[in-house]
Specification:
Elements: H1 10-15, H2 18-42, E1 48-52, E2 58-63, H3 65-85, H4 87-90
Helix pairs in contact: 2-3
Length: 126
């Protein structure tokens, strides 16, 4: 797996204060997780296994479900962690859209009612 070296952090140490260095280090950590995700996704060495018969004759190849599931869990864990460390860059984007009937614009209606109050002296016949 690819790993970033500490020399990549040298310019950050020289130019920024502690809070900026921490933020940049967290971004670098999320980027490293993304790099690891690509390595895991591209690694298919154990995805297939050879099936053998009773007399050890090759019957063909089959998916190694355990290795595939383990890779999926490793990817999901890194994806979740990268999303928590750098949500703007690696977090899930949630979009909400509000629309009216048939996808059209919303219409607002304002209704004002004039109601006569009982006991109002202006409404009584004198």
């Amino acid at each position: 797996m690819s790993r970033r070296t500490s020399s990549a952090m040298t310019p950050i140490r020289r130019t920024c204060g502690p809070s900026h260095r921490y933020a940049r280090a967290r971004e670098a950590q999320a980027d490293t997780l993304a790099d690891e995700m690509l390595d895991i996704a591209d690694d298919g060495r154990n995805d297939w296994m050879e099936r053998l018969g009773r007399d050890d004759t090759p019957l063909g190849w089959t998916v190694n479900g355990e290795a595939v599931q383990r890779s999926r869990i490793r990817l999901d864990a890194r994806k979740w962690l990268a999303g928590k460390i750098a949500p703007k860059k690696y977090g899930e984007k949630i979009m909400q859209e509000v629309s009216g009937p048939d996808g059209g614009a919303l219409q607002t209606v304002t209704r004002i009612e004039m109601v006569a109050m009982s006991g109002d002296s202006s409404n009584s016949a004198a």
